[in-house]
Every structure is written in structure tokens, then in C-alpha cells.
Amino acid sequence: MDRRHSPGFAGIAIALLSAAARGQAVHVVANAPGPGVEFTSVQAAIDAATDGDIVLLRPGTYGDANLGAKSLALAGDVGGVEAVGRITSAGASGRVLLKSLKAGGTGNAVSVNSPSCGVSIEDCDFTAISGSSIGQTRLLVTSSAFVTATRTLVEGSALGGRALFVQSTPIATLYGGSFTGAHGLDTVGTPAGPGGAALRVEGGFAFVSAATCQGGSGGSAPLGPAKAGDGGNGAELVAVAMRSLGSTFAGGAPGVAGSPPGDFGVPVALFSGSTWTTLPQTARTFSASTVVREGQTATLTFGGAPGEFAGLVYALGAGPPLHLPEWNGMLIPELATADALLLATLDTNGAASFSFVAPQLPAGVEGVRLVVQPLYFDAAATNVVLGPPATILIVDDTI
């Protein structure tokens, strides 16, 4: 793998020096008091925060997080977060970022309903979470400006729940990750429940790259006669135009017992004039450091085709995702403040790793959100593909 420190990242330093107007306060939460810790309750930190702030969770287990109408970044610090309770957001008017979290609680692990707000979910794990409500969706986004889920793992709640349900939200973007519907309700003497769909989108446009959507298996009804549950669908689209790149959609298997037997789910179910277009290009990969302090090194890791060029688009924040068909993807960094770097050629394994030292933030700025996204292309620029985005939280070195 090509590893280097790139002088081109001086441009990022210049961008950060102009970040005073976008600087956020950083509120540190830990399970116990200690150096740099402001709160031992995630909700207390949220209540004290204002729009644009960062709530940074040190490794530990936390209760529910109700963001209310605040546009915040809720993120796990280096080392990860064992668990956060249910995360909810309603009525926010800016951008909500959920990053490097595990969320639980019963029913919906995450519920967002903010018509003027977009939500970005990165590197989260919403799997292996208990729940007993029949058919509950694990990740629910309704009536919001957009949702972008990147490198995130989601499993439906127990008993046929969906993994991700997006409703009345114009743009849904999935970059990487795995979405799995829950197993259906097993019964005795009555029809078993169907498996949950991995993804359901109602209305708007969806773009899915390098993601796996697996429908849940149907429930069983061993005593009967009673019908076995049908397998869940990989994706269900209602009045949606979806494009996918390098993604897998699979229906779940029916219940193993029951008479009559259940049916297999389908990879993608289309309703109300929905369309599904698969793109011929190969999806690319990308990852970046989650949280870096001033003076620490941030690392970017690229994965693409051997010999192709890798560039980077970056901005101080995420904008509404912009579909760029000629670049086979969705542009995530805020277009008004975006800039770009040409980094290098990928090695014979199609890989490269770059690093830069996080610069000093302007006085009075405790943290910023640096949104980066790779752009891969060949020498003739006839094959161009946007990779998955990442948000790097750059924070004061005293935090």
C-alpha cells in the first residue's frame, strides 16, 4: 500500500483557519468524572449544547439521547462507545451527525423526524440489540431533508422488523454497510409472521453503493395447519427512483415449518411506479480517522482499481447530497465551501494511505467537522466514481 504524508493537505489547514464562523463547542461525556470531562450524562450534555456543537462520548455505556430540535454531532471518541440508549431527533433545522455509536433501547434505536434537517450516520452499529415489539423498524427516518448512512450496520428489531425505513424524505444515500431484516414471528397453531425488509423507502430518490440489503427469514408455524412466514424483501421501494452500484440485495428465506409453506422474499420489490437501475461500475472503498486532536495525525485509506488516480473533495460540513451521474455517485461535502486535492496513483493492489497533521484551530474554536470524500478516475477521466464520505472531527488538543 502506498503510504505517504501529502503536502497538499496544507489546503485543509487553510480551510480550518477560516473556520471561526463554523466552530463548535465540544462537550465531553464519560461514565465517571475525570480530566476534561464535563458531563456524566449524555442527555445533560445535549441539554447544554447549542446548534452546531459536538457531543463527544468517551468509551462507556450511556442512556437515551434526545436531541430534540438541536442540530448536533453526537459521536464516539477514539476507542468506541459500548452502547447508547435510544437516539431521537425531531424538529432540527440544520445537520445532525451520528458517528461511531452503538444504539439500543426497545423499538426504534434511532428515530429522526425533522423536515428542515438532514441526518448523516457514519460508522455506527445498530445490531445485536434486544427488543420485543413486533415489526419495529430499527432505524427510522421520516419527513427529513435527507439521510446518508455510511459504513453502518443495522439489524431490524425482533419479530419481523425492518432495518431501515425512510419515509417522506427526498434523498436517501447508503454508502457501504449492511442492513438486515429481522426474523419473523414464530407461532404455534396460527400463521407465522413474515421476515422484515432490510430497506424500505417511500418517495424520492435513493442511491446505494457497496451496501448489502438482506431480507429477514420468515417465522415458523410447526403446529397447524398454519402457514409459514414469508421471507422479507431485500428492499421495498414505493414511488422511488433508485440507483445502485456494487450492492447486494437478497430476499429472506421462508419459515422452515408450516403448511402451506411461505414464499421467499424478493431482492427488490417495486411499487407505485418505482424504478431500479444498476450501474456497471465497481464500488470503491474509503475510511478515515474519526476524531483527531490538534497536532495528531489523521489517516485516510483509499481502495479502488490498480493504477487509477485518487482525489479528495473536502468541506467544513455536509450539504444536501448532490447526485452526479457522470461521477457515479452522490457528492456529500457542502458544495458552497468545497475544495479538492489530487493525491496520487493507487498501487498495484488498488490501495493508498495518506496522512496529515491536524492543524491548530482558530482561537475560541473547540472543534470542527471536516467532511471528506474520495474521487477515483482513470487517466482519460472516462471512468469516474465517487467513493464513500467520512467526517473527521478535529478538536482542541486540551479535550
Helices and strands, with pairings:
Blueprint: E1 2-5, H1 10-17, E2 26-29, H2 42-48, E3 54-57, E4 65-66, E5 73-76, E6 87-90, E7 95-99, E8 110-113, E9 118-122, E10 125-126, E11 139-142, E12 146-150, E13 153-155, E14 164-167, E15 171-175, E16 178-180, E17 199-209, E18 212-214, E19 235-245, E20 248-250, E21 268-271, E22 275-279, E23 285-288, E24 291-293, E25 297-303, E26 309-315, E27 318-324, E28 329-333, E29 339-345, E30 351-357, E31 367-377, E32 384-386, E33 390-395
Parallel strand pairs: 1-30, 2-3, 3-5, 4-6, 5-7, 6-8, 7-9, 8-11, 9-12, 10-13, 11-14, 12-15, 13-16, 14-17, 15-17, 16-18, 17-19, 18-20, 19-21, 19-22, 24-33
Antiparallel strand pairs: 23-25, 25-30, 26-29, 26-31, 27-28, 31-32, 31-33
Summarize the structure in words.
The protein has a domain at 285-395: S-adenosyl-L-methionine-dependent methyltransferases (Single Sheet). With 399 residues, the chain is mainly β. The longest helix has 8 residues, at 10-17. It has helices at residues 10-17, 42-48, and strands at residues 2-5, 26-29, 54-57, 65-66, 73-76, 87-90, 95-99, 110-113, 118-122, 125-126, 139-142, 146-150, 153-155, 164-167, 171-175, 178-180, 199-209, 212-214, 235-245, 248-250, 268-271, 275-279, 285-288, 291-293, 297-303, 309-315, 318-324, 329-333, 339-345, 351-357, 367-377, 384-386, 390-395.
